[in-house]
Amino acid sequence: MSLSETIFSYNSASGNSAVRSFIEDEQLYFSLFDVVKAISAENKVLDMVSP
Question: Cα(13)–Cα(23) distance, rounded to whole angstroms?
């Protein structure tokens, strides 16, 4: 099992983040590492904006 060339772009307050994915047995899976990295980056930006 390896991550595919399919990359989803997640647009957020921190900019664009690439999220890798793969399909196995007709199920779409996302890289947890990429998802956590994207959410973490967005939380850092939003934390600076919050009062």
Answer: 28
Rounded distance between C-alpha atoms, residue 25 and residue 49, angstroms? 42
Q: What is the 3-state secondary structure (H, E, C) of the chain?
A: CCCCCCEEEEEECCEEEEEEEEEECCEEEECHHHHHHHHHHHHHHHHHHCC
Going by C-alpha positions, the residue among 21, 11, 20 that lies closest to residue 41 is: 11
CB 14 within 8 A of CB 41: yes
CA distance 18 to 33: 11
- Kindly report, residue by residue over 11-33, the tens digit of the pLDDT: 877 788 888 888 888 888 899 99
